[in-house]
Amino acid sequence: MKKQIKNNVSWVGYIDWELEQFHGDDYSIMNGSSQNAYLVQEEKTVLIDTVWAPHSFEFVENLKKEIDLNDIDYIIVNHGEVDHSGSLPALMTEIPDTPIYCTANAVKSLEGQYGKHNWNFNVVKTGDSLDIGNGKQLVFVEMKMLHWPDSMATYMTGDNILFSNDAFGQHYAVEEMYNDKANQCLLWKEAIKYYANILNPFSPFVTRKIKEIVDLNLPIDIIAPSHGAIWRDNPLQIVEKYVEWADNYQEDQITIAYDTMWDGTARIAHEIAREISKQSPDTVVKVFNVAKMDKNEIMTEVFKSKAIAVGSPTVGNDILSSVAGWMAFLKSLKFKNKKGAAFGCYGWSGESVKVIKEKLADAGFAVVEPEVKSQWNPSEADFANIPALVEGLLA
Fold first, then answer.
1. Which residues are catalytic?
2. According to the model, what pLDDT value does residue 382 have?
3. What is the pLDDT of residues 54-107, one digit of tens each?
4. Three-class secondary structure assignment of the chain
5. Cα(326)–Cα(324) distance, rounded to whole angstroms?
6. What is the fold, at CATH topology level, of the domain defined by 3-245?
7. Where are the domains of the chain?
8. Which numeric CATH code is attached to 253-394?
9. pTM of this prediction?
10. Are 3-245 and 253-394 in the same CATH fold?
């Protein structure tokens, strides 16, 4: 069922209440999500994006209830990733000659994923436009690496709508559609989680691209992303947040992440948390066992933090696989301007703290020298090393 967004623009996407994982199992979904597609019905009828392949039959059938598919003059593909383009093959079997407007990289992406079907591709770049009648145009803005090489946004003049694709979205199911109707705590929680876990590696591109959009001097009344709530109430508030988040974001927070075998490393983690609160009562402290807690939720807290402490016991001359995998993900997110410290227990060889420090440095963290390294069970002598570690993180 389509829902009117503004004038002749409607939402024709899919709200995915049952979705629990995304990007394979690499991104957790806690509050549902949506795949937002949009229908523009001016003198020309334009479909902007589709939905994920599992919902393609429902998507096409619902679209048929709203319009004759043959009345679609143009299809805009802002991004070739399957959650946006998955229904395109099914749609194109119905209207195979319909012109598709996308970037050059999107052509490669679509043909790479779905094969070459001689679809009527029309390649666009930043500043190109498409007349849709009634004095309105679609203006295309390449969004390379936000977060794929093929990404772009589409701006509709007259109604001043920015169809921003993955930028400014959230994995959040909102039946009421709009940011002012959404639960504000969940909206911003999911927005910052989305940025931290998907877009943060591309923060330099975010900064440049927002400046490029601002320099185009386009009035924006609505930002319509590909996932989650549509921003109609002060839509630029999310743009302002992206500017802030892209600038090596941090709050007065320290996150402690660890795993433990026989609770010694856990005891150190909890003692570090207590010492942080003792030395800096206003600093927010978060403590997570990486083997038990959702990694995307943890990374959101790391994103907000000015420093982290990572702990693992030594096992097989290395660190626990749970911590090693978590630190590989940590590196991929390319956090900047944050400090890191290491701690852990060992029985006989004791390499874990050294390994963690190396991995923290490799992930771009400024590693503080003080450490807590305890043989067998942590003693008062080991706990006596915690204040120096905390001082290093707070300095």
1. 23, 79, 81, 83, 147, 166, 194, 227
2. 97
3. 999 999 999 999 999 999 999 999 999 999 999 999 999 999 999 999 999 999
4. CCEEEECCEEECCEEECCCCEECCCCEECCCCEEECCEEEECCCEEEECCCCHHHHHHHHHHHHHHCCHHHCCEEECCCCCHHHHCCHHHHHHHCCCCCEEECHHHHHHHHHHHCCCCCCEEECCCCCEEEEECCEEEEEEECCCCCCCCCEEEEECCCCEEEEECCCCCCCCCCCCECCCCCHHHHHHHHHHHHHHHHHHHHHHHHHHHHHHHHCCCCCCEEEECCCCEECCCCHHHHHHHHHHCCCCCCCEEEEEECCCCCHHHHHHHHHHHHHHHHCCCCEEEEEECCCCCHHHHHHHHHHCCEEEEECCEECCEECHHHHHHHHHHHHCCCCCCEEEEEEEECCCCCHHHHHHHHHHHCCCEECCCCEEEECCCCHHHHCCHHHHHHHHHC
5. 5
6. Metallo-beta-lactamase; Chain A (3.60.15)
7. 3-245, 253-394
8. 3.40.50.360
9. 0.95
10. no
